[in-house]
Amino acid sequence: MSLSDEQLSAWQDNGYLVLPDFVRPDLIGVLTQRIAEMVEGFARSPGEATTVFSTTEKTHAQDEYFLTSGDLIRPFFEDGAFDDDGQLQVPMDRGLNKLGHAMHDLDPVFDRFSRTPEMSALVSDLGFVDPLLLQSMVIFKPPHIGGEVICHCDHSFLWTDPQTVAGFWFALDNATVENGCLWVIPGGHRQPARSRFRLDGAGTTTDVLDPVPYDMEALIPVEVEAGTLIAFSGLLPHWSARNTSDDPRLAYTLHVIDGTADYPADNWLQRRPDLPLRGFV
Ligand code: FE2
Q: Which of 49, 96, 183, 272 has its CA 20 to 30 A from that of 140?
């Protein structure tokens, strides 16, 4: 057992848990160094990424690029990273929205970081029986360009039946209201998901399950220091603002589902057969 009774009841009551100093400072350095190497690699040979994102309009190519990234590590750019001529306006690490979505299986540094005894114990304390590491992302939220992420719950995107997904948000920089920290609706995880994003033929669709918008007044900011882990239920509504500061707001996120639940074939994130989902071993 790694969590106290107080922490477990806070998790149950609020739908999230803040664990300061979960990440050792030297490991933050290891991760940020690895991220810098990856960004350098993408800057040297951007491949299709810059072509796909160098338009301001959302295109079929962007959808396809996203939908086939569940078992890859691909860079995604912020809106506004490119000018009208398709030229990157800022250094690459200041224009990236994220890297995703299989860092934890394809990169040895992120694999080691994600699969620690501490994470395994935490996930087990939160009630997982057969935990599977489904999705990972490095989220950049760069100064001035990093955009808003609208209020949502992650179950809408990583559906299981019954609902099992939980998010693990590791702050690699201090996260503040100014640089776009997470905001959450405490207790909001007791409500069902209001939508489901899924595959629909060659494209995607969003099923509206409850048209009532989230109460944005109920959101509270979760300002944390680098090294903090925020664990949150896949049903917890959360939001983040634009980064209006001069500071970066780097985070790593991991999403875990339970293998005892059904994983629908029309979820957007699908793995190729030679890269099956794995747990903590
Ligand atoms: Fe989310």
A: 272
Tell me the CA distances in angstroms from 51 to 42, 54, 65, 213, 268, one per residue in order.
Answer: 13, 5, 11, 35, 22
Calculate how far, in angstroms, residue 30's C-alpha sits from the geometric centre of ligand 1.
25
CATH number of the domain enclosing 233 = 2.60.120.620
Say how many Å lie between the CA of residue 2 and the centre of ligand 1.
Answer: 25
In a domain, 281, yes or no: no
* Number of Cβ within a 10 Å radius of residue 247: 16
How many angstroms separate the alpha carbon of residue 88 from the centre of ligand 1?
Answer: 26
Partnered with residue 169 across adjacent β-strands are: 230, 253
pLDDT digits (tens, 9 = 90+) for 2-57: 899 999 999 999 999 999 999 999 999 999 999 999 999 988 887 777 777 776 66
Rounded to the nearest angstrom, the distance between the alpha carbon of 85 and the centre of ligand 1 is 31
- Cα–ligand 1 centroid distance for 189 (angstroms): 13
CA of 274 to the centre of ligand 1 (A): 27
Q: Is the pTM of this model over 0.90?
A: yes
Burial of 245 (0-12, 13-18, 19+ CB in 10 A): middle
Write out the residue range of the structural domain in which residue 219 sits: 5-258
**Cβ–Cβ < 8 Å for 243, 141:** yes
- Evaluate whether residue 276 is within a structural domain: no
pLDDT of residue 54: 73
Report how far ligand 1's centroid is from the alpha carbon of 154 (Å): 5
Q: Is residue 193 part of a domain?
A: yes
| Ligand 1 center–CA 221 separation, angstroms | 15
